[in-house]
Structures are given as C-alpha cells and as structure tokens.
Design brief:
Chain lengths: 292, 263
C-alpha cells in the first residue's frame, strides 16, 4: 500500500479536478497527436505552432469577457487558420514568412488584450493561465463541449483520411489523382485549429506545440506505416499527459504547498519519449551495419 | 515623452532596432522565420533561471538561446528543420514553466518578458547591449559577402569553400545573441516581429542586397520609434504597436510591389 501511495499520492483518484484533467487531457492529447502526424509529414510545424500562439489572443478575449477560454481559443484559432490560408500559405516558398507576419500581428493583439485584462480585472494571472495552461482549473462542465470538439476533429480526419494522407506524402501525385490539394490543405488547417484549441486549454497556448509535434515526431521516427504512426503518436500523447497529470499531483507532496506545473511534466515526458524513439530508431541500423 | 528617464529607453530601442533590421534581412532571405521566432521564445525562461541563480538576466538569456542554437542545429541533422525547431522550443519552454513557477514573482514578470517593458532602462544596462550590437553588426559586415552567397546559392558558396552547415550555425548564433539583447526590452514574442516585418517589406521593395539592408534597418528603427511614441500616448503596450506596424509594413510593401508590376 505504501508503494502504491508513493506512485499515486493520496486522493489522486478521488479528486474531481484530477478526473476532469485526465478526461480533457486525454482528448487533447489524442486529437493533437493524430493531426500532428499529418502536420509533421507536411512540414507545417511552424503553422501549427503559429496557430496555437495566435489562439492566445482568444484566451485573453475570453478572460476579458468572462466567458470560457475554450470558445475564445476556438474562435481565434479558426479565424487565424482562415487568415493563413488567405495570406497565401499555399505557395511554399513564402509560407514561413507569411506565417511569421500573421503570427506577429496575432501576438501583438494578445499583448494588448492581456494588458487590458490586467488593467480591468487586476488579474496578473491571466497571462499565466492563457500562455501556460491551468488544466486543474478547468471546470467539469467543460468536459462535454471539449469532447464534442474532439469528436468533430476526429470525424473530420476520418472523412478525409485518404486524401489527407496522400496530399501530405506526395502533393503532386495527389493532384494527378484528382484530389483537390488546396481544399484538403484548408481542412487540415481547420482540424489543426480544433486540436490546438484543445491543447491550449490543457497545457497553454504557447506550449500546445508539445502535444502536437512531439508525439508525432517520435512516432514518425519509429513507424514506417501511416496507420502505425497514428496509433503510436496517440499512445505517446496519452502517456505524456497521464504521466504529467500524475507527477504534477504528486509534486504537492515533494515541495509542500507548491505544486510544480503540469505543463512542465508533460513537455519533459514528451521530450523523453522523443529521445527514446530516436535511440530506438537508431538501434536496428547500428546492428545492420555491424552485420555487414 | 522625451523626459530624461525615457532617454535611455529610446537609445536602447534604437540600438536594438538597428540590429534586428540587419539580422532580420538574412532571416527573411534564408527562410528562417520559425527559428527566429523559436529562439527568443525559448530563451525567455533564461531570465527566470538567471533570477533563481542570482546572476544578470542577460547571461541567462544568452545561455538559453545558446542552448537553443546548438539544439536546433544538432536535431536538424537528422530531422526536418521545422520539426527540430518545434521540438527544441518545446523542451526549453517546458523547463521555463518550471523555473518561472519556482522563481516566485510569476505573473507580472512573465507578461513583461513576453511582451516587453521599456520603462525602466538604466544607463548601465545600455553598455552591454551596445557592445553586443556592435559585435553583431561587425560580424554581419565581415561575413556579408560569404553569408549572402551562401544564402542565395548554397552550391556556389560551397565551391568557394563556404560550408553550409557552418554558415547556418554561425548565423543562428548571431540571431541568438541579437535575441538575448533585445528580449528584455521588446519582449520574447515581438523581437521576432521586429526582425521579419521590416526586413520582409524591404525585400519586397528592392532586389539589391545592400539597399535592402539599409531599408530594412531604417524601417525597423521607424517601427520602434513610432511604437514607443504611440505606446506612450495611448498607454497601450509597445508590443501591440510593433506587431501591428510590422504586419502593416509588409502588407503595404506587398501591395505597392503588385501595383508597380502591373503594366
């Protein structure tokens, strides 16, 4: 029993915030990891990161209006996806630049909104919770809408799975087969903005890249088939999120009175998983060269 | 607006704008926007770490952006560059959340580091920034031709004995230093706007490298001056004006180019 308590600090399973955190954390991790695989394959990590950064403006608006951060993140992320598409994300040569400019403008807006947040509601905590997340503070009433958003994202991915995969791996072949590459690209961005919203609620706007890119990059290192990569990415995301929630809860007992941030544990676990995946991927190659 | 306590701020901002405009042109030409965004954002926890250790913020920032530069170049050898950048950014920010929460003064400090604070610049703080600024400009001046050649035609540069890997690392290191010195003033999120907005506009307006460099520097200085003045008058954050102006400059330059191209 004492060993059990060492791993799971007392009250872990009974705590309502922990249960909520586990449910929404799992949803965010799975959706982000799945769309992350496509994002990594398409070489659009910057767009994914930009969307999550820009969505922080939405979190700040929500703070200002006193509505749930979910709707703020969601609205702004979808708008930003549209702006990126309009500004010419399709021409790959200029893509980084345009993404950067839109990102800069979005962050400027966040600066203003957070400034107003701090001024009007005297809550310096707004910057922290928007940027770095506050998974234990999400009310249980958000579970249903967040699962709804996750369901929508997974459904969209399922519907366009084949063309999405084909355009991610080989756009030329896809357009030769009559796939409308640009509309699939827009749909990819839309799903991305849903995923980013969920992750921003979980580990914060500027950290949501961790759940998006980390598990997917690790999975792509190991798996050579798309289906397996998706499965592994989802699994990695879940492990990191559950482990992160558990460790953050336990950390109350390490440094009495002060918990370590969940986001720190989740990003550390994701980094560890990536390093492990790299070592794993290296192994057979080393053996092969040794045999030869 | 030009009261004596503001003068240091103006001097500091001008130095930073000159450096950001010059470095930014190469960031834009080399297509390294993501790295230029990730370095400052990943470096900002360095300030919190420095606070914990009781050393100067600048060294913490330089240390963290150095980690970022090494990490990105190492990971990019066996991974797509954008993925490598995202992974490094994630790892540094993760550490950052821990340092920030351990170092106590959390909320206000985070806002200032992310979005910048130009009010309290002392004369003593200007000297290291000026020294680093001169260092960067000198390095850019000395390396201008090889760097430009490597940027525009890596193959041709390789035949002249300029290794692409070394040029990449060296340039990233410059971006890292520029980031560290600009960060406390303009903020982690907007160093990047200042780097790519004016530079992208300058590149749209001219094809000649030297003219573009000059134009980029001038536009960056203009952006910063207008932003500080507007922030002073409106009491809104400087970062908002920097981000918006940078995007506006880019849009205007784009439109004017399209207009001129039409017969």
């Amino acid at each position: 029993m004492s060993f059990f308590n060492l791993i799971f600090a007392p009250g872990f399973f009974a705590s309502a915030p922990v249960q909520t955190a586990l449910v929404i954390g799992s949803a965010a991790a799975i959706v982000s990891a799945l769309i992350g695989v496509f994002t990594v394959l398409r070489g659009q990590s910057f767009a994914g990161h930009a969307l999550s950064d820009i969505s922080s403006a939405g979190g700040s608006v929500a703070f200002l209006l006193g509505i749930s951060a979910l709707w703020g993140f969601l609205g702004v992320a979808v708008l930003a996806a549209g702006a990126l598409e309009l500004a010419g994300l399709r021409r790959s040569k200029e893509r980084d630049l345009v993404t950067g400019i839109v990102l800069g403008a979005g962050l400027g807006l966040t600066a203003l909104l957070l400034h107003l947040d701090i001024g009007t509601r005297s809550s310096g905590g707004a910057a922290i919770s928007v940027m770095f997340g506050s998974i234990f503070a999400v009310p249980a009433s958000m579970i249903v809408p967040m699962l709804g958003v996750s369901g929508l994202a997974v459904l969209m991915m399922g519907l366009i799975y084949r063309p999405l995969l084909l355009t991610s791996l080989d756009p030329n072949l896809a357009s030769a087969q009559g796939v409308r590459v640009s509309s699939i690209g827009l749909l990819h961005l839309l799903i991305l903005s849903l995923a980013v919203t969920l992750s921003a609620m979980t580990i914060g706007a500027i950290l949501s890249t961790a759940l998006l890119i980390g598990p997917a990059a690790a999975a792509v290192q190991i798996a050579h088939r798309p289906g397996r990569a998706l499965l592994l990415a989802g699994l990695f995301g879940l492990i990191a999120t559950w482990g992160g929630v558990l460790l953050a809860y336990d950390s109350y007992t390490w440094t009495p009175g002060q918990a370590w941030p969940v986001s720190f544990f989740i990003t550390s676990l994701v980094s560890l998983i990536y390093v492990a995946a790299r070592l794993w991927a290296k192994r057979p190659v080393a053996r092969r060269t040794a045999e030869a | 607006m030009f009261a004596s306590y503001m003068i240091n701020g103006w001097i500091m901002a001008t130095i930073i704008a000159v450096v950001a405009g010059a470095v930014g042109l190469f960031v834009v030409l080399r297509g390294m926007s993501f790295a230029a965004h990730a370095l400052p954002l990943g470096a900002f926890p360095g300030a919190a770490a420095a606070n914990l250790l009781g050393i100067s913020e600048l060294w913490g920032l330089i240390g963290f952006s150095g980690l970022g530069v090494i990490g990105i170049t190492q990971l990019a050898q066996r991974q797509r560059r954008d993925v490598a950048t995202a992974l490094m950014l994630m790892a540094l920010l993760g550490l950052g959340t821990l340092f920030l929460s351990l170092s106590g003064h959390y909320a206000q400090g985070v806002y200032a580091l992310l979005f910048g604070q130009l009010v309290s610049v002392s004369r003593a703080e200007i000297w290291p920034v000026l020294a680093l600024g001169i260092l960067i400009i000198a390095a850019l001046g000395l390396g201008f031709r090889p760097l430009l050649l490597n940027t525009l035609s890596p193959d041709l540069a390789a035949t002249h004995g300029i290794s692409a890997g070394r040029a990449d690392f060296g340039f990233l290191a410059l971006v890292g230093i520029a980031t560290a010195m600009a960060l406390p003033v303009v903020g982690a999120l907007l160093v990047f706007s200042l780097m790519i907005g004016p530079a992208a506009a300058a590149r749209s307006l001219t094809n000649r490298p030297a003219t573009a460099l000059l134009l980029s520097v001038c536009l960056a200085v203009l952006t910063v001056w207008v932003s500080i003045a507007a922030a002073y008058i409106s009491d809104w954050p400087t970062g908002f004006f920097v981000g918006t102006l940078a995007a506006l400059l880019f849009a205007v330059a784009r439109l004017s180019r399209r207009f001129h191209r039409l017969p």
